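Reminder to self: tokens first, then the designed residues, so the page reads top to bottom the way the pipeline ran.
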């Protein structure tokens, strides 16, 4: 799946709903995902980490503290321990009892929809964990429905080897010639960065275009920012407010 081109609709940037519908429901929960799948977006973004007993779950932070009733590192807890926690009350009392979903539960909600998912592999992944994740997605025929992203070079290298047919996004905090060279070497579909980075070196974005490498910017929630991203020819915009962005685009 090519992100660049396929999703760039005549100057209209593609919308990525950040952590599900994170402005409406607690991020990365199934409720947030169900709401996000109803939105007019190109991708629903989520984050995946592995529990102490090896199960991929949806969770952004390395610790449980901010988004659940638990505390401590995600990787130090089993699935049973994590799923016993409340992952909704922090967002609002009406979401009390919301649980941290597994990747498998997320895929079960994704499958009946037509939306694509952008899945970030957070933290450190072992080769067998990456291989198992890719095999799981493949066995569910999600090659054209799921794109994979990471900030971590070893993870991106593993994905290049084990998931060459999946769209992959290299997230980066540096934007220089070395980052472009790395994106080319990793054979990714797009590079993802904060918009300020791309603004600083637009010529590097231009250098990537003929190579078929697109751009994803995060996390833009204001019209002025969406306008800038559209004018700069960005392919995908990650936002907490996809409904307003779609309205602004006149979809
Ligand atoms: O899609 C990239 C973006 O989601 C990265 O930001 O903070 O949600 O990991 P963060």
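Designed residues (251 positions):
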């Amino acid at each position: 799946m090519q992100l660049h081109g396929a999703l760039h609709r005549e100057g209209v940037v593609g919308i990525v709903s950040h952590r599900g519908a994170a402005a409406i429901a607690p991020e990365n929960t199934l409720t947030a995902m169900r709401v996000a799948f109803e939105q007019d977006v190109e991708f629903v973004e989520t984050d995946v980490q592995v529990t102490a007993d090896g199960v991929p779950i949806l969770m952004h932070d390395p610790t449980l503290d901010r988004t659940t009733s638990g505390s401590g590192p995600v990787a130090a807890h089993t699935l049973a321990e994590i799923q016993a926690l409340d992952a909704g009350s922090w967002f609002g009392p009406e979401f009390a009892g919301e649980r941290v979903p597994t990747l498998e539960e997320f895929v079960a909600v994704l499958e009946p929809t037509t939306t694509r998912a952008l899945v970030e592999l957070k933290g450190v992944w072992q080769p067998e964990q990456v291989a198992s994740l890719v095999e799981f997605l493949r066995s569910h025929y999600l090659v054209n429905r799921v794109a994979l992203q990471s900030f971590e070079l070893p993870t991106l290298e593993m994905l290049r080897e084990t998931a060459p047919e999946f769209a992959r996004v290299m997230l980066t905090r540096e934007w220089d010639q070395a980052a472009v060279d790395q994106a080319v070497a990793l054979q990714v579909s797009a590079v993802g960065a904060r918009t300020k980075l791309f603004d600083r070196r637009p010529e590097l974005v231009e250098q990537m275009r003929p190579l078929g490498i697109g751009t994803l910017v995060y996390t833009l929630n204001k019209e002025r920012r969406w306008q800038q991203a559209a004018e700069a020819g960005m392919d995908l915009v990650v936002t907490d407010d996809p409904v307003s962005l779609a309205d602004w685009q006149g979809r």
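Confidence is low (pLDDT under 50) at residues 4-9.
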